[in-house]
Amino acid sequence: MTREAVVEIHGLVAGYGRHQVLQQLDLTVWRGEALGIAGNNGAGKTTLLKLILGLIAPQEGYITVLGRMLDSSRVRRLMRRQIGYVPQLHTPGKMPVSVHDAVLMGRWGKGFGFFKRPSLRDRQKVTEILQEIGMSHKEWQEVHLLSGGEQQKVSIGRALVREAPILLLDEPSTYLDHGSQAEIVELIRAVRLKHGLSLIMISHDPEHLEVMSDRILLLKNGRLEER
Ligand SMILES: Nc1ncnc2c1ncn2[C@@H]1O[C@H](COP(=O)(O)OP(=O)(O)OP(=O)(O)O)[C@@H](O)[C@H]1O
Ligand SMILES: [Mg+2]
């Protein structure tokens, strides 16, 4: 069986202005793999995810997603549709948005957009995902009234509803109590298996990384090391 790379990075140098955060970083993520990434605060973990998402462009080196080189803003935008992203510390604003609508936003640019209203299929997908993440009973509640763990589930739901083959999770269990952490870990495991996702997960919790990942790398001095 040949292994297929879903993300390939070579010689990546990137950062903010003159502040270089990543230095000659290499990485290959294989289809179906769950990769865990650890590293100190400020090591560049979130920056790495933003590069894979094409939100930042490399200064040197290259990134491919599903075999496509991210070498223009058009391709970066296109390939972003293939990636579900659960951002670090996502706090919903004070806007009275329902759980249903918050998850539906994950299909922006895929199912609907500026000139295309959400279809029945988009709505059905939301209902399906809410069932899967155990949030159906809160479908019409406002997101900012939910607990931290429930909000994190909504964030995961928003990433899943895209039906993308790659999922990036930036510290999905930080700031949650033990019970909610365990639930989130179990949820991620279940959705990964069900949808056959390739997963890159960042966590400060070695135990979670151990449970969730096939392989764990450490981001240090701008590069990824084996642990
Ligand atoms: N938008 C930005 N503009 C300028 N510098 C930034 C920006 N975002 C991050 N940085 C800097 O880049 C470095 C890496 O930040 P990054 O958020 O990638 O770290 P991290 O590994 O995710 O840390 P943490 O574990 O705290 O989330 C830090 O020194 C940070 O200050
Ligand atoms: Mg971070």
Structural write-up:
It is a single chain. With 227 residues, the chain is α/β, with parallel strands linked by helices. It has one domain: P-loop containing nucleotide triphosphate hydrolases (Rossmann fold), CATH 3.40.50. Helix content is 32%, strand content 27%. The protein has seven helices and ten strands. It has a six-stranded mixed beta sheet with strand order 6-7-8-3-9-10, sandwiched between helices. A four-stranded antiparallel beta sheet has the order 2-1-4-5, covered by helices on one side. Helix 5 packs parallel to helix 6. The structure holds adenosine-5'-triphosphate and magnesium ion. The site of adenosine-5'-triphosphate (ATP) has 12 residues, from strand 2 and helix 1.
Q: Quickly give the structural class.
A: alpha/beta
- The Rg value, from CA coordinates, equals 17 Å
Give me the CATH fold name: Rossmann fold
Average pLDDT: 92
Total of DSSP H or I helical runs spanning 4+ residues: 7
Number of domains: 1
In CATH, the architecture is 3-Layer(aba) Sandwich
Strand order of the largest sheet: 6-7-8-3-9-10
Strand content: 25-35%
Helix content: 25-40%
In this entry the ligands are: adenosine-5'-triphosphate, magnesium ion
The number of distinct β-strands equals: 10
Order of helices and strands: EEEHEEHEHHHEHEHEE
Low-confidence stretches: none
CATH class: Alpha Beta
**What oligomeric assembly is this protein in?**
single chain
**Terminal-residue CA separation:** 27 Å
Brief characterization of the structure:
It contains 7 helices and 10 strands.
